[in-house]
Design goal:
By secondary structure, the chain is mainly beta. The protein contains 4 helices and 19 strands.
């Protein structure tokens, strides 16, 4: 898959249907520059920036979405289009005719983050978790597939009563429920923008979407290196919520495993703390996140920054294999940056998984 790549950006409605703009019936935007940044630790997962040479659509940019696709054209002229994602655009400045418009782009998860419950939300012990998560996602005005295909969607139930105060963001509420069920945080489907989620599966048991290896079929830049700094690996994880109208929650998890080279006992009692911000609607949910994050930080202490051609499936959370110069390891894609013109190499940071 070594063909030429370029980014396609089109204006759509909330359901992904094309909206004509500036005489282009397919809603194609004239992109000048921009980038898309993804991180597994970011609440919205993906955000970006675009500079486009288009007039403002009726009603303003905020009522529409922008579909980003990566188009790969092979030497024989055949091509394939791959969905990267749908974004909600925003701009604070009205551009003059013929001048570029600078847009901030946000994942559809923004609708859940902005939508707060006006009243106390109370769920009783025994309530099915996944249907409840689906309900609160759709209440924010988005489509969702959370749990719809799960065979145990009615079997996973709350083991205790749960309550969220007024002002709780629905993204925090949904992710709290998903964490309770042992599922990963909500994300936006790249093709539809619908809110989805998957059960948590250890990286060692997930499918490998790509192997980075040398040879004629290599898609990566040769200037890679393994980065390992055991000195700065945290053995205490402090997770906090953003607070807002409610008092911020704080959860702390320590690595006290004497077999771990970075644990507090192995360092002679030295504590190296890391602080992260997460969306969680209860103390228990935030503590579960802190426990998982300190476990991940302790198990994946090596990172490998890679520059490579955009490849389907190699995205946030995907498991890849790095088989290069004596290294043959599984790794998880933690961060990614994609240039908007599609000609630059994708910058991915992968974390090596220690079994």
């Amino acid at each position: 898959m070594s063909g030429r790549r370029h980014i396609s950006a089109t204006l759509t409605d909330a359901n992904g249907r094309w909206i004509p703009i500036d005489g282009d019936q397919l809603g194609r935007l004239r992109v000048l520059s921009g980038s898309f940044d993804g991180s597994r630790s970011a609440a919205l997962r993906w955000s970006g920036k675009l500079s486009v040479l288009n007039s403002e659509p009726p009603g303003g940019w905020g009522r529409y979405m922008i579909r980003i696709r990566v188009v790969i054209t092979e030497e024989d002229g055949t091509w394939a289009s791959h969905d990267h994602g749908l974004y909600i655009p925003s701009t604070d400045v009205a551009a003059r005719p013929g001048q570029p418009v600078n847009l901030e782009l946000y994942s559809p998860l923004l609708r859940l983050q902005d939508y707060a419950t006006p009243n106390i939300v109370s769920l009783a012990k025994g309530v099915p978790i996944l249907p409840a998560a689906w309900l609160y996602a759709t209440e924010a005005g988005v489509m969702s597939t959370i749990g719809l295909d799960a065979p145990d969607r009615m079997a996973l139930t709350l083991r205790e009563n749960k309550m969220w105060p007024p002002g709780t963001a629905h993204l925090a509420l949904v992710n709290d429920l998903l964490a309770t069920a042992g599922w990963m945080a909500a994300e936006a489907d790249p093709s539809t923008g619908w809110i989805s989620a998957q059960p948590w599966v250890p990286p060692s048991r997930r499918p490998v979407v790509h192997t980075f290896e040398a040879g004629e079929a290599a898609i990566h830049d040769a200037g890679w290196q393994v980065e390992q700094d055991l000195f700065d690996v945290p053995n205490r994880m402090i997770c906090m919520t953003s607070g807002g109208a409610q008092e911020a929650l704080v959860a702390v998890a320590d690595n006290t495993d004497p077999a771990s080279p970075t644990s507090i006992p192995s360092r002679g009692g030295r504590v190296k703390a890391a602080t992260e911000q997460h969306e969680a609607a209860s103390q228990a949910a935030l503590q579960a996140i802190a426990n998982r994050r300190i476990n991940e930080a302790s198990q994946a202490v090596r990172t490998i920054p890679l520059k490579h051609l955009w490849t389907p499936g190699v995205t946030l959370g995907a498991v890849v294999r790095v088989n290069l110069e004596g290294i043959n390891e599984l790794a998880v894609v933690e961060k990614q940056r994609i240039d908007a013109d599609g000609t630059e190499l994708v910058e991915s940071t992968v974390r090596v998984v220690v079994s």
